[in-house]
């Protein structure tokens, strides 16, 4: 049996030789930001179109991960998506990103689960396609984490075709498997014996069963049992039971846990770049990469890149250990925009994106 912590493929290292290029782009390129307002059903989505100094070579719609995010997807004080947009503009790529509905400057109801975001992102893609600054250019879509599920859904639902897809820290398995792997990972339960860890994993699965059923009373009972099996005190259970039950009984978790993204991904025929951080604990490449390789459409071109010391958000801090976060000290790793840029250049050169 292969090592479960080592993906069974040779990672394609796209970014290793480009460190010097980053400074050349940064020193020369100017970034221009334009406010946009995009009608999307009952919402009006506020966002930012970020353009390079000269003629762009491609345009990308950026889709954040889970949560009521602004356009910048703030993580540990860092403008995660904003930094990515600026880094891509320095490399000649235009992007647009939006505040989620009901968040910051966007109007409308807040999203209850990820599927409600799909028609809104379709509207954003349509808007980007109509912009005179990027008309006629290769048009793609990029999704991070939960956003990876949205971008493939958008690809299948939009009337006009896209040219390419990028997924980062992507979910490759059904929500149950990904979530239980996060929560019951033995690295998080080192004070428990293997037998206890197995019982805790089973308890997490029982919580998932109850969540998918939509039965709040069953969720509460399963959560209470989980806390007991994990060794929580009566005081800890009383303090945390309601909040965790609310979370697991929410439509957001019910929809996510029951969803398998692979049937939709299998329909995508455009070139796809799938990027993971090698030390990502949230969507570990050890379990999320192989489904993309197995389920890709034969008509598509899939490129997989695992960036060795990157975490889920592709952020780093000077003097911090890989994966360590400290508020206000995080920067975007240059390896991520380099990987996207070099892949896109290669696909354009091959005539696969045009």
Description:
The protein is of the alpha/beta class and 354 residues long. Helix content is 40%, strand content 18%. It is built from twelve helices and twelve strands. The protein has helices at residues 19-28, 80-90, 118-130, 146-157, 175-184, 194-213, 216-229, 234-248, 251-258, 262-265, 285-295, 335-349; strands at 32-40, 43-51, 58-63, 74-75, 78-79, 93-98, 139-144, 164-168, 272-277, 302-307, 315-317, 330-332. An eight-stranded mixed sheet has the order 1-2-6-3-7-8-9-10, with helices on both faces. A two-stranded antiparallel sheet has the order 4-5. Strands 11-12 form a two-stranded antiparallel sheet. A hairpin with a 2-residue loop joins strand 4 (74-75) and strand 5. Helix 3 (118-130) packs across helix 4, helix 5 runs antiparallel to helix 6 and helix 6 (194-213) crosses helix 9 (251-258). The protein is globular, with a radius of gyration of 21 Å. Residues 1-28 have low confidence and may be disordered.
How is the topology of this model organized?
Elements lengths: L18 H10 L3 E9 L2 E9 L6 E6 L10 E2 L2 E2 H11 L2 E6 L19 H13 L8 E6 L1 H12 L6 E5 L6 H10 L9 H20 L2 H14 L4 H15 L2 H8 L3 H4 L6 E6 L7 H11 L6 E6 L7 E3 L12 E3 L2 H15 L5
Parallel strand pairs: 3-6, 3-7, 7-8, 8-9, 9-10
Antiparallel strand pairs: 1-2, 2-6, 4-5, 11-12
Helix pairs in contact: 3-4, 5-6, 6-7, 6-9, 7-8
């Amino acid at each position: 049996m292969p090592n479960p912590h080592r993906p069974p493929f040779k990672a394609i290292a796209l970014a290793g030789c480009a460190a010097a290029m980053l400074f050349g782009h940064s020193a020369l390129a100017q970034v221009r930001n334009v406010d946009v307002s995009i009608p999307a059903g009952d919402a009006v989505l506020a966002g930012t179109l970020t353009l390079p100094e000269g003629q762009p070579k491609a345009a990308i719609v950026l889709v954040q991960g889970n949560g009521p995010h602004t356009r910048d997807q703030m993580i540990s004080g860092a403008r995660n998506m904003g930094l990515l947009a600026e880094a891509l503009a320095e490399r000649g790529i235009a992007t647009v990103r939006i505040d989620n509905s009901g968040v910051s400057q966007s109007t409308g109801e807040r999203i209850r689960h990820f599927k409600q975001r799909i028609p809104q992102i379709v509207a954003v893609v349509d808007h980007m396609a109509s912009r005179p600054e990027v008309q006629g250019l290769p048009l793609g879509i990029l999704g991070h984490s939960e956003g990876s599920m949205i971008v493939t859904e958008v690809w299948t639902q939009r009337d006009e075709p896209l040219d390419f897809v990028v997924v980062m820290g992507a979910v490759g398995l059904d929500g149950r498997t990904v979530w239980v792997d996060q929560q019951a990972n033995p690295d998080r339960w080192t004070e428990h014996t293997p037998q206890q860890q197995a019982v805790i994993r089973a308890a997490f699965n029982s919580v998932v069963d109850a969540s998918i059923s939509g039965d709040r009373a069953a969720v509460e009972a399963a959560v209470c049992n989980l806390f007991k099996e994990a060794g929580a005190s009566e005081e800890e259970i009383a303090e945390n039971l309601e909040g965790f039950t609310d979370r697991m009984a929410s439509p957001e978790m019910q929809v996510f846990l029951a969803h398998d993204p692979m049937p939709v991904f299998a329909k995508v025929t455009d070139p796809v770049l799938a990027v993971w951080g090698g030390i990502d604990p949230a969507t570990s490449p050890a379990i999320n990469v192989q489904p993309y390789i197995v389920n890709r459409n034969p008509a598509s071109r899939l490129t997989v890149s695992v960036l060795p010391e990157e975490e889920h958000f592709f952020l780093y801090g000077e003097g911090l250990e890989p994966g360590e976060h400290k508020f206000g000290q995080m920067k975007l790793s240059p390896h991520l925009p380099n990987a996207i840029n070099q892949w896109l250049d290669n696909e354009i050169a091959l005539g696969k994106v045009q």
